[in-house]
């Protein structure tokens, strides 16, 4: 579960960063 949660968090963070850049 921890792995899945970490992965989801990472994807969400990446999406937020990309949105901020663009």
From TrEMBL:
Domain of life: Bacteria
Protein name: Uncharacterized protein
């Amino acid at each position: 579960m921890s792995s899945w949660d970490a992965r989801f968090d990472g994807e969400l963070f990446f999406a937020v960063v990309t949105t901020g850049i663009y």
